[in-house]
Design brief:
It is a single chain. The protein has 279 residues and is an all-alpha fold. It is built from seven helices and two strands. The protein has a two-stranded antiparallel sheet.
C-alpha cells in the first residue's frame, strides 16, 4: 500500500504542477515581463547618467543564453512541474507516516480527512509562513549584495516552520486522548504560531524595493519600481500556491477513495483491511 501512496503522490503532484503552470503562465508571467522591462529601462538610465558624468559611452549587455520565450515557457514549465512532483512525493511520505499512526489508533477515521488536514498543514508550513516572513518579489527587486543573507533567512524560516508543524502534529496526537480533539488542535495551533512568531521576530528584515534614479541635481530621471507590479505579483503568487496545494490534495484524496473502494467480488472486510490495515 505504501507504494500506491507514493504513486498517488507523484501523480497528484504532476497534475497539480501542470495546472499551477498554466495559471502562472497566464497571470504571473506578465508581471515578470513588466519587472524585466523596468529593469532594462533602469539599467539604461543608470548607464546614460554614468556616461554623461564621465564622458564615456554606454555599453550594451551580452545576449542571453536562453531566450525569454524559452525561459517563460519551457524553463518555467519544467521547474513548476518538477517542484510539484517533489511536493507530491513528500506529501505521500508524510501521509504514509501519519496514516500509519492514525489508521491504527483510530481505524474509523476517513483517510481523505487526514489527507485534507495534511494538505492544509503543508500549505501553511511550507508556503504561508515563509511567504509572510519574506514575501515573493518579481525580478529587479532586491539587492544582489544581500542575496546570500536573504536566501539563508528564507531557508531558515522554511525549515523551522516545517519542524514546528511536525512538533505541533505530534503534540495534538499526544493530547487528543487526554483533552479531546478540539482542545488538542487549538493547543497545537497556538504553540506553532508562538514558535514561528518568535522565529520571524529574530530573523533579519529586508526592504530593498528600488527607488527612483536621480541625476546630480536630484532630478528624477527614472521612476522607482511600480508598487502595483509588486502587489499583483504577490497576489498571483499566493493564488498559484493555493491552486497547487488544493489540486494536489484533492487529487490525492480522490485516489485514496478509489484505493478504498472494494473490488466487486470482494467482501467488505477486505476493503477495511486495505485502508486501515496498511500500518
Amino acid at each position: 500500500m505504501e507504494k500506491k501512496f507514493i504513486g498517488a503522490g507523484l501523480l497528484s503532484g504532476l497534475i497539480a504542477g501542470i495546472v499551477a503552470f498554466i495559471f502562472a503562465r497566464l497571470f504571473i508571467e506578465p508581471q515578470v515581463a513588466k519587472a524585466i522591462d523596468y529593469e532594462g529601462g533602469r539599467s539604461e538610465a543608470e548607464e546614460a547618467l554614468e556616461a554623461a558624468a564621465h564622458g564615456g559611452h554606454v555599453h550594451g549587455e551580452g545576449g542571453e543564453l536562453f531566450t525569454r520565450s524559452i525561459q517563460e515557457n519551457v524553463g518555467a514549465g519544467i521547474g513548476t512541474v518538477v517542484f510539484a512532483v517533489c511536493m507530491g512525493a513528500f506529501f505521500a511520505v508524510a501521509f504514509t507516516i501519519l496514516w500509519a499512526y492514525v489508521g491504527r489508533r483510530y481505524p474509523a477515521t476517513d483517510p481523505r480527512t487526514v489527507a485534507a488536514a495534511l494538505g492544509a498543514i503543508g500549505f501553511v508550513a511550507l508556503f504561508g509562513v515563509p511567504f509572510f516572513a519574506y514575501p515573493a518579489n518579481p525580478p529587479a527587486v532586491g539587492d544582489d549584495d544581500t542575496i546570500g543573507a536573504r536566501s539563508g533567512a528564507f531557508l531558515t524560516i522554511t525549515l523551522l516552520s516545517v519542524a514546528f508543524a511536525v512538533a505541533a502534529v505530534v503534540l495534538a496526537l499526544w493530547l487528543r486522548p487526554r483533552i479531546g480533539g478540539l482542545l488538542s488542535g487549538v493547543a497545537a495551533t497556538v504553540g506553532y504560531l508562538v514558535a514561528v512568531t518568535i522565529t520571524v521576530a529574530l530573523l533579519p528584515e529586508f526592504h530593498e524595493v528600488p527607488g527612483p534614479v536621480t541625476d546630480g541635481a536630484g532630478q528624477i530621471v527614472f521612476p522607482g519600481f511600480p508598487g502595483d507590479v509588486i502587489g499583483d505579483f504577490r497576489v498571483y503568487a499566493i493564488a498559484g500556491q493555493v491552486i497547487l496545494w488544493t489540486v494536489l490534495t484533492v487529487v490525492f484524496a480522490l485516489i485514496l477513495g478509489r484505493l478504498s473502494r472494494p473490488p466487486a467480488s470482494a467482501p467488505a472486510a477486505d476493503d477495511e483491511r486495505i485502508v486501515a490495515g496498511n500500518s
